[in-house]
Every structure is written in C-alpha cells, then in structure tokens.
Amino acid sequence: MDSAEQRISGPIERRESIRRGIYLLPNLITAGSMFAGFYSMIATLNGNYGTAATWIFISAICDGLDGKVARLTGTTSQFGVEFDSLADLVAFGVTPGLMMYAWALKPFGRLGWLAAFLFVVCGALRLARFNVQVATVESKRFVGLPIPAAASMVASTVLLFDHFGWPSSFKRLAILTLIYLLAFLMVSSVKYYSFKDPELIKRQPFSFLVLAVVLLIIVATEPAVMVFALMSCYVLSGPVGFLVTLPRRLRLERAIHKGHGGQHSL
C-alpha cells in the first residue's frame, strides 16, 4: 500500500469506528467534567467566584473518574482520549483563565488578560505534549504539572482568599505570581506523581485507612485551608523532587561523558 492509500485509509477506518458507536459511560463523565467547567464560567461572569472555584473541583473529580471507569470497564478508545483533552482545555484552561482575569487581573489591563492567556496556552501545550508522549513516558510520573492540578491550585487560592477575606491588593499580586509559576511548571520537564500506581488499589496496612480517615476529618474541619495546603504541597513536590535528585543526575551524566571519552580515546 502506498502513502496515498495510507492517508486515505486512516480517516476511513476512524470514520468506520465512530459509525460502530462510542462508549457511553466514560464519555458522559467527560461531558460532566466539561459541564462543570462551563458552569464555573457562568458563575465567574455573575461574580460568584467561590462557586466558580468549587465547580472547578467538581470538574476535576469527574476528570479523574472518566479514565478510571474506562479502564475498569474495558471501554477505552481514541475518541475518549481526544474528547477528554478537549474537555480538559475548557474546564482547566479557559475556565480558570477567565476566573483569574475577572477575579484579580482585570485592573492590570492588557497585562492581566495576557497573563491569563499565558496560563491557557501553556495548558494547551501541556495537553498536546501529554497526548504525544503518553505511550513513551512512565505511567507513574507526569512530565510537567498536570493541567487539572494547575486549575485546582488556582481554585483553592480563590477559596482561601474568600475564606480569610484578604484585600484585593494582596490577591492581585499573588495571582499574577501564581500564574507565571503554574504556566512554567506545566510546560517544564519537572516530574509529578500521577497516582496511577496499581499498588494503590491493592491491599494496604490498616494504619493507612486510619491515616486516610484522619486526613479527611482534618480537611472537613477547615476545607479551604487544607485543600490549599494539599494542592500547594503537590505543586511544590515537583520542583523539590527535581532539586533533591539533581546531584544524582549530574553524577550520572558525568559518568556517561567519561565513558564516552574513554571509548573515543581507544
């Protein structure tokens, strides 16, 4: 088969697979994630920023469920992967970008909406890179900060400021700094734990259950503070892990260079 026939047969095969049908349950959950993101935008336009932030978390929960449901039920598909990426861009890229601009960045004018756009475009680049590298990257680690985590970090910041009633002058500077940090981390090569380790769903010591219950109680006591703390720990875990493992990586690179040098000398 020549290249022209391959180019033609590819779209035909994809169309035929769509005609045979799509898996309903995981794609409905993905649609629910997009709905939550869209409703968050509506809440932002109405000035209800606390509600908007809460719906971003609801969208993140749906986003975490759709892939797991698809894998558990054996209903994974290329259509679902593409639909999930589009939903993520809406719910975790455009939605928090709009919320940040309306909530804190509007007084900066052009600089404000350009900063919000930076968050959106870096999120899109992060999703595109993930789709390209998904078959070649270790499943236990994400390369770059996942866009749902970046959006959840923004939402937790909104809830924290709303909880303490901090003045708007604080939130403008905080959000502007946060945007650039999150945008950089999304397109960086810093690795983050993916929580896709199969060992997590296997039998665990009883103490793990007790610890999980205690953690849930602490979060329920001060949800705004604790969710912000948890998201901050996850966002910072990547750079901290990068710095901790940097000496070992440098030693490994030096050893490799020395080995190549010895081969050339022979």
Structural write-up:
- The chain has 266 residues and is an all-alpha fold.
- It has a domain at 16-197: Four Helix Bundle (Hemerythrin (Met), subunit A) (Up-down Bundle).
- Helices cover 80% and strands 2% of the residues.
- It has a two-stranded antiparallel ribbon.
- Mean pLDDT is 83; it is low at 1-16.
Radius of gyration: 22 Å
Under CATH at level 1, the class of the domain at 16-197 stands as: Mainly Alpha
> How does the overall form come out from the CA principal axes?
globular
SS-derived structural category: mainly alpha
First-last Cα distance:
46 Å
**Poorly predicted runs:** 1-16
Strands side by side in the biggest sheet: 1-2
Main sheet makeup: 2 strands, antiparallel
